[in-house]
Amino acid sequence: SLKYAPSLTVYDYSISEEQIGGMKVKEVVFSYNYSYDIPPTDIIFHCHYQGSPVIVFLMERPDNEVIELIKKPLPLSEGEKIRVAIGRASKIKAYNFGSKFDREEDRISRDMVVPTKIFFSEAKEGIFRNPIPLKGVYKVTAMIILPREDDRVEDAHISFLGSVSGLLGTDNSRRDIWSGIAAGVKWALIIGSLTALISVSVGVIYGVTSAYLGGWQDALMQRIFEIFRSVPLLPLLIVMSAVFKPNIWALIFMMCIFFWVGPVKTVRSIGLQIKEETFIEASRGFWCFKFENYI
């Protein structure tokens, strides 16, 4: 059976530095041992950078062929994390490289080229339609040109996005969906459990109190309840989240402010029903206080 390349992130690299005129040039070299039949789907470069560096990506294959992948000028930044999809952006380079070895009549449309299939295949006839995996150590070099003295690139690493996906597949950025769900479940449980516990507790206490007091106090509490119930909750939460950028605990607090109205009517109706029970009337005949009646 065919062996599919799994996803792999490489943090280890060798680095060299050279001063050319007023510019500094760094070469960051990552090694990738490819021993599979189906290549990675993309190559992603990650880093934090400051200034406006220019990065040129090169790939040295096991057969000593060197391919210039892409040249990427980065926008001016004071400290930003960036990811560069090398594979997807190098379709023209892949087509030009494959064209050197395949006959013109055997070539495919440039739009149909999958760059990584070309880069990880033997440089011989049939590279477009019947590629043969070229196994061995590949070296991906990021040549970083720093035009200013205070420009810098840090925390560089490279990801080879495999053809093997998780239980639920991957998103359009090739990230495992199952891992994201597993990481978010604990926060979903925390938000749901705390919001439900606090909201139901407040709603029950409010409904019982309203039924217990009765009269104008009950009427006032019901008007307050109706105001909260009539608020369009979802749009309000969306606006508040966009304006205030709350954390999880603030989000729980905001939901509790409006979710407590759920059990109020039911609890109040049960409380009013209990007030009319025979044993309540009997206890009043024995001069019991109102609170003692409910106890």
From TrEMBL:
<dbReference type="Pfam" id="PF00528">
    <property type="entry name" value="BPD_transp_1"/>
</dbReference>
<keyword id="KW-1133">Transmembrane helix</keyword>
<dbReference type="GO" id="GO:0005886">
    <property type="term" value="C:plasma membrane"/>
</dbReference>
<dbReference type="InterPro" id="IPR000515">
    <property type="entry name" value="MetI-like"/>
</dbReference>
<feature type="transmembrane region" description="Helical">
    <location>
        <begin position="187"/>
        <end position="213"/>
    </location>
</feature>
<keyword id="KW-0472">Membrane</keyword>
<protein>
    <recommendedName>
        <fullName>ABC transmembrane type-1 domain-containing protein</fullName>
    </recommendedName>
</protein>
<keyword id="KW-0812">Transmembrane</keyword>
<keyword id="KW-0813">Transport</keyword>
<feature type="transmembrane region" description="Helical">
    <location>
        <begin position="233"/>
        <end position="261"/>
    </location>
</feature>
<keyword id="KW-1003">Cell membrane</keyword>
<dbReference type="GO" id="GO:0055085">
    <property type="term" value="P:transmembrane transport"/>
</dbReference>
<dbReference type="InterPro" id="IPR050366">
    <property type="entry name" value="BP-dependent_transpt_permease"/>
</dbReference>
<dbReference type="InterPro" id="IPR035906">
    <property type="entry name" value="MetI-like_sf"/>
</dbReference>
<feature type="domain" description="ABC transmembrane type-1">
    <location>
        <begin position="185"/>
        <end position="295"/>
    </location>
</feature>
